[in-house]
Design a protein that fits this description.
This is Pilus assembly protein. Keywords: Membrane, Transmembrane, Transmembrane helix. InterPro entries: TadE-like_dom. The chain is α+β, with helices and mostly antiparallel strands. A hairpin with a 2-residue loop joins β4 and β5. The longest helix is centred in the first third of the chain and has 55 residues. It is rod-shaped, with a radius of gyration of 35 Å. The chain starts with 7 loop residues before the first helix and ends with a strand.
């Protein structure tokens, strides 16, 4: 004899148990699981996002400070070139520092804290000689050692070949409190005969 065939009602019950989806969690447990996943994602992504945002602000401040240093160097070089700053460093040194610090202030906010103490200025000059510009061959740029730059200032006179450098040790707060980057702006020019 052949095997007994199950009745249709029993066959329907077998099909539904074999192909049923796994049991679903109750609604309140599903919501708690999703909240936990969101919290975990938030905890992993938030620190990276904050570091990226802080890095953008830090690099922006460095680029702005470098641009301000360049503008201050151009302004100081223009005044030295036309004879507004002449003589020994005692004559023009304090005015040059005040001028540079004023150019590093935007809207009442200085991008170089304690500017008169932290800004580093180097001026080298040599007589132009004949042919004009031959003094540049004897001039050397400032020596930079880490975050310290040579800060000597030569006497300025008419027809001098001049190297002007302004430096600032920019603090990188992102990495460590002791890490600094030396920002330097350099201009080379010749003073007028005045």
């Amino acid at each position: 004899m052949g095997a007994a065939r199950p009745d249709p009602a029993h066959r329907h019950a077998l099909n539904t148990t074999m192909h049923a989806s796994p049991p679903r969690l109750p609604l309140h447990r599903r919501a708690a699981t999703q909240r936990g996943a969101v919290a975990l994602e938030y905890a992993l992504v938030l620190p990276l996002f904050l570091v990226a945002v802080f890095a953008v602000f830090q690099f922006s401040a460095a680029f702005i400070t470098q641009a301000l240093l360049d503008n201050a160097a151009h302004h100081a070089a223009r005044l030295a070139r036309i004879g507004t700053m002449t003589g020994g460093p005692g004559n023009y040194g304090p005015r040059l520092t005040a001028l540079v610090c004023d150019d590093l202030t935007v809207g009442g906010h200085s991008f170089v804290p304690s500017c008169a103490r932290t800004i580093q200025i180097y001026v080298a000059a040599a007589n132009s000689g004949a042919p004009a510009g031959s003094g540049f061959l004897t001039l050397a740029p400032a020596t930079v050692n880490g975050t310290t730059m040579t800060q000597t200032k030569a006497a300025l006179g008419p027809r001098d070949d001049v190297v002007l450098q302004i430096g600032y040790a920019f603090p990188w707060a992102l990495f460590t409190t002791s890490a600094n980057a030396m920002l330097v702006s350099t201009l080379v020019f010749q003073t007028e005969p005045y």
